Sequence to fold (471 residues):
Amino acid sequence: MVINHLIMKLIKKKILILLCIVINCHFFASCDEKNEGSSLKPNPFNNSSDSSILNVKYTSNADTLFLTWKLLSDTIDFDFFQVSLNGSAEVVKVNSNINSCFLTHVPYNKVIPVSISLVNNEEIIKTFKKDVVIDGLDTVFARILIPDKGSVTGGDGTYSIPLPDGRSIFLMGDSFTGPVTNGVRSKSDHMFRNTYILYDHGKVTAIFGAKGEKSSAAVPPGVSDESKEWYWPGHGFVDNNTLYIFQTLMYQAEAGMWGFKYKRTDILEYSLPNIVLQRNMNTPFVGSENVHFGMAVLKDNNYVYIYAQKDLNNTGTSISEALVARTTIDNLYEEWEYFNGTGWTSNSSEAVKMEGLSNVNVSSQFSVFKLQDKYILLTQEKQLFSGQIYTFVSDNPQGPWFHKTLIYTTKEQNIPNVYTYNALAHPQFMKDGMVLISYNVNTMDLEQLFNDAYIYRPRFFWMDIDKILGK
Fold:
């Protein structure tokens, strides 16, 4: 929600037309044949590397590595190239007149050896090795969701809710909608306290202006000056063609960038499919201002589970935990039950932290969702320059949680003044056994916000479901 920025060079996606015969399908987006036990040596890393035969370059998008190469000698007689990733016995054959291919499911943020061998008469005669490192970021999806003009062009938050017709709505915090030119944003660009992005099968539309052109998508009742009081989004859900969005009411208690405080959480109801506000209601929770319900929401069977992040120490070395309440649609505004460690109680003061989250401090925004028959909690460690994103697994929506897994570590916080925060899952977006995950980026240098507009945009990556589930 605080303005989030980050420096990142967008990688151009190359559309490669390949004439590849694939021996094993594990690495490729398109493949036909499997290795039927040919005499090819399964591990080309047993051969000496010859850096004089090939000049290799690479780019990447998400988990896909795009390789191009130039043969430096025209005197070598061979039948085809053989490409292997990380010393795997799974290899790809590429015709000798082709100088490119792509590999998928490449591990992130690791040095990965790639081998390109020349094969003649089923024997490897030359091998070139190159170490590659990819960051795993899906820059294609990111540029669709946050373009340079025509929609939201910068922001954080980045909750998403799938809609019944296949669209998704993204809930953004502090946002810009003005155009970005050559990476630079005009200093006159208006910042909205929140916006919505309607994602419709690759097309995006910004939603704002609930109470006038310069107002946000959601404005607290009776508020005319959003610099004093405003909404930052929590999560939400859909039931019976109605969209419910939790919004945290914030106010400026002190001067400065960090002078905001939490007041309460409201629920806004929108009719679908046109996303028209029907009513704005308070939640029934009454308790400490350090407990923020609505930071994750899960509709499961007959219950709506509403998760809270509780701050015990909200500083650069934050200490926090997570609570959970549940209710039904009929009692959403009237009666919640709170998990007390053994069961459910109507007394909110008896709510206790969910067990099994180890020593990870739950971030201000996090996700709880289902994969297969398991419940998953995803959070980023709430330490300003940590960058560590974890998942946990449970058999129940209230925990206990187990199988703590560090799935990704962000890198942007290594840039001066830049930090990352509030990773979220988007389980309606899946591909090839992976689920889409985002995190936000910010800067403490206000000038960076405008001089490098790409900083203040969410980053996206894909994570293997099997890794999350521990399979």
